[in-house]
Write a structure and sequence with these properties.
Blueprint lengths: L7 H11 L7 H7 L4 E5 L2 E4 L4 E4 L2 H4 L8 H13 L12 H13 L4 E7 L2 H18 L7 E5 L8 H6 L3 H7 L6 E4 L4 H4 L6 H19 L4 E6 L15 H11 L3 E5 L13 H4 L6 E4 L11 E6 H10 L13 H16 L2 H21 L5 E7 L2 E6 L14 H12 L2 E2 L1 E3 L2 E4 L7 H22 L1
Parallel strand pairs: 3-13, 5-6, 5-7, 7-8, 8-9
Antiparallel strand pairs: 1-2, 2-3, 4-10, 9-10, 11-12, 12-15, 14-15
The structure holds pyridoxal-5'-phosphate.
The site of pyridoxal-5'-phosphate has 15 residues, from helix 6.
Family: Belongs to the class-III pyridoxal-phosphate-dependent aminotransferase family.
Pfam family, one: Aminotran_3
Organism: Ahrensia marina
């Protein structure tokens, strides 16, 4: 590859000169210089300085099958030679999105049988927002327009996705969100439960916040509730078992559509194809992206339930929405083969029956007693570690986020890539991790905490 003719310093200089990175403090980055990741294999990434790093984030929660599946390069090359692009507008389509839509429908919950493609999770959530509002117009209830979301939700970074999300710093910069989106508390037991409140009680209280918002707005004005089954970028917040059944009851009672954002939880991460299945949630739309192609190509799929699809088809009239790259034939070819690999290799069964529990118990055993650790929680291949100053009072290091940032820096120095979200450390590894990779991760996380403790005290 041509970049091998350039030194790390040359690439960093050009990067600083011309490349604006996503979610970055550009001043800080230019002082520090970028880490340049040059290649990857299986569970490891390699940087231009020759470091081999265990990628506990699967890229950005997306490389579910790990790196280096040549098969995906081959199907992409074949498809590019055969037909690199044609659109699905104007009563046309190409074969691979047809096959992929059929495949996704076969894996999705029974009531979900239609798929709308985009290139990112953000785009898919834009589609979802427009589709549910369009649905209620077609139903003759245009005033049913408000969408309820949650604090700290992450639904992407376009204007609509930022508006749906509940990240206050993003809203401040947006300074003018899409109207009629309201946010309520999220079911974050460790951080928000009251003294003596059980998990079950807390789950019901968090669900009641949704009901209160619906009642306050007037159910006749509320189109949908949107949520991640497990909040991802918000800090791997796993709701108590009482939460989702109560949400389901509330949505049914007030005839409010349920929009699930499974951009992270989709395609195996929780030990089923979708969290809707592992957590028994019946949705009207499911947003998916990331693991759909394991990040080998940009692709998203909004999976649409029968109720919404039926109205869309029966009432007719054009839905004025779509992207040039909706149903991109190369991305869909890669997505289809990626799902076939996940299935063929039994990756999801392994997470459900073996490695998911082993991951959580190994991390707990390695660091559960560490003075910086307030809680370790997880489901499937999602792990959160709460970093605290004091276990009993759950107090945090100052300034906010300093504890987890110190752990993150030491994790990378110990050759494990993890992410800090506020004061929480996150893992979302590729589904291919074996017990050996998990043991390696546990050891490195333990070393990272030891390093961070020395810095912080
Ligand atoms: C990453 C993510 C998105 C946005 O996906 P992009 O492909 O980055 O646009 C949306 N929702 C959730 C839950 C995500 O984690």
């Amino acid at each position: 590859m041509t970049f091998q003719n350039f030194s790390t310093e040359q690439l960093q200089k050009m990067d600083a000169g011309h490349h604006l990175h996503p979610f970055t403090d550009h001043k800080e980055l230019r002082d520090a210089g970028s880490r340049i990741v040059t290649h990857a294999k299986g569970p490891f990434i390699y940087d231009s300085e020759g470091n081999e790093i265990l990628d506990a984030m699967a890229g950005l929660w997306c490389v579910n099958i790990g790196y280096g599946y040549d098969e995906l390069a081959d199907v992409a090359a074949e498809q590019m030679r055969e037909l690199p692009y044609y659109n699905s507008f104007f009563k046309c389509t190409t074969p691979t999105p047809v096959l992929l839509a059929e495949k996704i429908a076969s894996l999705a919950p029974d009531n979900m049988n239609q798929v709308f493609f985009g290139s990112s999770g953000s785009e898919a959530n834009d589609t979802a927002l427009r589709l549910v509002r369009h649905f209620w117009v077609l139903e003759g209830k245009p005033e049913k327009n408000i969408i309820i979301s949650r604090d700290n939700a992450y639904h992407g970074s376009t204007v609509a996705a930022t508006s749906l999300g509940g990240m206050s710093a993003m809203h401040e910069q947006l300074n003018g969100a899409v109207p009629n989106i309201k946010h309520v508390m999220c079911p974050y037991y460790y951080g928000l439960a009251e003294e003596g409140e059980t998990e079950e009680e807390f789950g019901l209280r968090a669900a009641k916040a949704v009901e209160d918002a619906i009642v306050e707005a007037g159910p006749e004005n509320v189109a949908a509730f949107i949520a991640e089954p497990i909040q991802g970028a918000g800090g791997v917040k796993i709701p108590p078992a009482s939460y989702w059944p109560e949400i389901q009851r509330i949505c049914e009672k007030y005839d409010v559509l349920l929009m699930l954002d499974e951009v992270i939880t989709g395609y195996g991460r929780t030990g089923e194809w979708f969290a809707a299945q592992s957590m028994n949630i019946k949705a009207d739309t499911i947003t998916t992206a990331k693991g759909l192609t394991s990040g080998y190509m940009p692709l998203s799929a909004l999976i649409v339930g029968d109720r919404v699809a039926k109205t869309l088809v029966e009432k007719g009239g054009e839905f004025y929405h779509g992207y040039t790259y909706s149903a991109h034939p190369v991305a869909c070819a890669v997505g289809l083969r990626n799902l076939e690999i996940i299935e063929r290799e039994g990756m999801i069964d392994r997470v459900r029956n073996e490695t998911g529990d082993y991951l959580l118990s190994s991390i707990e055993a390695a660091i559960g007693d560490h003075p910086l650790v307030g809680e370790v929680r997880g489901k499937g291949f999602l792990i959160a570690i709460e970093i605290v100053k004091d276990k009993a009072s759950k107090s945090r290091h100052e300034p906010s986020g300093a504890g987890a940032t110190a752990v993150r820096d030491h994790a990378i120095a110990n050759n494990i890539m993890m992410r800090a979200v506020g004061d929480t450390m996150i893992m979302s590894p590729p589904l291919i991790w074996t017990r050996e990779h998990i043991d390696m991760a546990a050891e490195r996380v333990k070393a990272a905490l030891a390093g961070a403790l020395a810095d912080l005290s």
